[in-house]
Amino acid sequence: MALLDILIYPDQRLHAKAKPVDQVDSRIQQLIDNMSETMYSAPGIGLAAPQVNVLERIIVVDISESKDSLLAMVNPEIIDSEGQAETEEGCLSVPGIYAPVNRYEKIQVRAQDKKGESFELEAEGLLSICIQHEIDHLDGKVFVDYLSRLKQERIRKKMKKTLRIT
Ligand code: NI
């Protein structure tokens, strides 16, 4: 396994749309392993392939305290949703920034697992929020995009300053 470099906002590559995965083969499985390792090491609770500069529809999520409940989703799709919830979100691509975002409270998701098997999942609470956040990344959307222009500008400036220092 290998750690992958995470793109940092406002890197324009974070706004590209990812393509569906045709076949879950050993290359995709390896990518899922590397993405998981990168997520755990960051540490974070979710990571999408575009964040490591791979434009394919793959996300990994683990919201458990013990970090032993990895959920890998290939070609995830929200097929049903219910309610609304506002949650303070953060992102490995926007380190140190947290802001409230409004999302569905509950979702029904369809995806393929690491073996290419199709499955469906009902999620609520943090898991629901996290999956929606990661699927957004597949469509080139970062949570900052939901904030006011003024806030976005402030975050961009702050991130550019941080990038110059490190
Ligand atoms: Ni993110």
Could you walk me through the main structural features you see in this protein, from its secondary elements to its overall organization?
The protein has 166 residues and is α+β, with helices and mostly antiparallel strands. The chain has one domain (12-163): Peptide deformylase (Peptide Deformylase), CATH 3.90.45.10. The chain is 28% helix and 26% strand. The chain contains three helices and seven strands. It has a five-stranded antiparallel sheet with strand order 1-2-3-6-7. Strands 4-5 form a two-stranded antiparallel sheet. The protein is globular. The chain starts with 25 loop residues before the first helix and ends with a helix. The mean pLDDT is 96. Bound molecules: nickel (II) ion. The site of nickel (II) ion has 5 residues, from α2.
In short:
By secondary structure, the protein is of the alpha+beta class.
What fold name stands as the CATH topology? Answer: Peptide Deformylase
**CATH architectural label:** Alpha-Beta Complex
Strand content: 25-35%
Shape: globular
The structure class reads alpha+beta
Helix content: 25-40%
Gyration radius, in Å: 15 Å
CATH superfamily: Peptide deformylase
- Termini distance? 25 Å
Main sheet strand line-up: 1-2-3-6-7
Which short descriptors sum up this protein?
single chain; 166 residues; alpha+beta; Peptide Deformylase; two-stranded antiparallel sheet; 3 helices; 26% strand; binds nickel (II) ion
Q: Topology of this structure?
A:
Layout: H1 26-41, E1 46-48, E2 58-61, E3 71-82, E4 85-89, E5 99-103, E6 106-112, E7 118-124, H2 125-138, H3 149-165
Antiparallel strand pairs: 1-2, 2-3, 3-6, 4-5, 6-7
This protein binds nickel (II) ion (NI).
